[in-house]
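Our consortium's second objective concerns turning raw sequence data into structural hypotheses that experimental partners can test. To show how far this objective has progressed, the report includes one record in full. It was chosen at random from the queue rather than selected for favorable results. The single chain below, 61 residues long, was entered without modification.
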Amino acid sequence: MNDADLDHSYTALCRALGDVGPERSELLLAMVALALMARAPAAREVAELIARSRDRCLQEA
C-alpha cells in the first residue's frame, strides 16, 4: 500500500467512525480488525502487530 492508499484508507475509517458515533466506534474498530486479521497470511504476523500496538498504547498512557 502506498502513501496515497494509506491516506485514503485512514480517511475512510475516520468517516466511518464519525458515521457510527462514539457509542459504536469500538464495535466498528473490532469488526474492521477481525476482517483484516482474516486476510493476514499467518497468525504470527497478527500476534506481533497486536503486541506492538498494545505496547504503543501503554507507552502513551
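The partners drew two points from this record. The CA atoms of residues 22 and 28 lie 10 Å apart. The chain has one domain: 3-60. Both points have been shared with the crystallography group to help prioritize constructs.
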